[in-house]
Design brief:
Length: 448
Amino acid sequence: MADKREQWSSKIGFILSSAGAAIGLGAIWKFPYVAGMNGGAAFFLLFILFTVLIGLPMLISEFIIGRGAKREAVTAYRRLAPKSGWNKLGMLGVVGCFLLLTFYCVVGGWVLIYTILSVIGKVIDTGVNYGQLFGQVTSSPSITLLGLALYLLINIIVLTFGIKNGIEKASTYMMPLLFIFFIVLVIRSLTLDGAMEGVRFFLNPDFSSITSDGILYALGQSFFALAVGFSCMVTYSSYLGKDVSIPSSASSVVVMNIFVSLLAGLAIFPAVFALGLEPTEGPGLLFVVLPTVFSQIPFGELFLSLFLLLFLFATLTSSFSLLEIIVSAFTDGRNRSRKSVSWISGIAVFIAGIPAALSMGGPLSDIVIFGKNIFDATDFLVSNILLPLGNFFIAIFIIYKMDRSLVEQQFRLANTYSPALYSIWTFLMKWIVPIVIIIVYLHTLGLF
């Protein structure tokens, strides 16, 4: 039955799809405002450190588990560790992805609404206050719920086409275009008067500005940005052929992710300082800065529309992977219609996402959970509690439970790297990754 499963048609298709899963809101929307609120350059360096020493080994681990089992997340752990409770790790991934989608798709809806408004010429206009515009979009129940519904509809339609004809085809065409337009935006941002102050904020580290909370957020961002911890990449790599090197593919995804985060910082922070805005703006930072930057250039509305369209795609490729782990959990190896399960899953996410959608200035904005609104509380739960928890147990599973010969076989397949790389990866997964996660967790609980 495993041989009848879909596979990625090529290595580049898998890498671009995996990069698409990783490069989305985490790198383009969340990274700039979290970095802005936590010291800029110092946060960026911590993010790179965590991404290389922890995120990359974790990404390799999920790839190994997925291709080694040739099954989606829940079944993968059951197959690799039969008659044990490790399948619950896959279930954690399904639940975690569901919770993540409840606020992720809200932001995706914002991007979709902004794209539509820009295409019809309603964003860049004389006298428009972009901060107020963002507030109007996010506080309007009808607009936010419409955006959420339309965004999920796109996800559902693409997933009904499957891996090769849906996710891979979309990723292969659109990811390169995202890089091109991002570079155009960076060039324009860097040529604004006063831009160098923003460059210094982003690339000249001041470690005195880093707090213990900032370290926690940097680790959470490295997990969030690479889509590891919820076994999304276990599901993606279960469709991977034996002719693809896992370390090479994972490294390519990490490099692209760090590069996009660099581009995001160079696009946003020079513009923030040049235009007299605050880097601590928060979730609305991107929606305020982008229109302001594009309003400074000829054909700005056109360029903004194109960039928002590509940003929308980057957001979609990430949510594809999140919804895919849910859909595949209920269809892989089962006599169930992928189309029906995709629709049921999408509708369930829409219903569960309504509270987060209505909490950003809407009728539910007064509801506070541990000092945060519903949207922010869900974000914190997913990014700083559940994602590190999932990564910790994946590290324990692959080192202490999964068959060592299968792990090494999957690591070395089509691998042109030095044999020492396997030893380095094993050392990081055995000692560095779990210890760092435990320290961060103790800090989160106020015990460290």
